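Retro notes, item 3 of 5
We never archived the inputs for the zinc ion complex last cycle. Fixing that now. Sequence and ligand:
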Amino acid sequence: MSQFFKFFFVAGFLFWNISSNAQNEAYASPIKQEIADTTFVNLKDFSSDFVYDMKYATEDNFLKAKVYDCAECFLRLKTVQALIAANNDFKKKGFKIKLYDCYRPLSIQKKMWEIVSNPKYVADPKKGSIHNRGGAVDISLVDAAGKEVEMGTTFDFFGIEASHNYTELPKEVKANRKFLKKIMIKNGFNSFDSEWWHYNLKTGLKDKVANQKWDCN
Ligand SMILES: [Zn+2]
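Structure as it came back at the time:
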């Protein structure tokens, strides 16, 4: 190869290399545009493996009022990631997470507190619930047939029977609660003694309280 052609060969190779790098860069950019893990996101944009029974988007709740405009599960990104990891563990055993409540605007927390002013069951809006911070979920499990697993009480049952410490329950119920708790704790959540359905993301306890309305479209 003459020096002349050698020059073009090397130059061409360099050009190809640079342009393909540029292409890789363009391709990688959506991944590189990482959002902060505290950003509020919609769970359904990240997974379609959850069952939804968002009680506050219906009248079937202790407020006896539909207080959410739509049945969406908004949470901070880190909560979504931990919840998906937990759901993957449940799926391996033939179950899925059923959601009752996720992020809850502070204004709704105030309405709840007016009806049930007992910190055992409803967080004082002055302090704010972890739900208001996008780090809490109210959940149960469904089996492969979509049937809800027996947990001993309904969601938002404000009584001792809903407590993790209550032992006067059938063996199966205690085992189901224990299973839920074990997997959730493994994936970064804390349980809440008086409500078997409530889980807080450990790293979400100090995030800011939010009162934003979500986009229902
Ligand atoms: Zn809760």
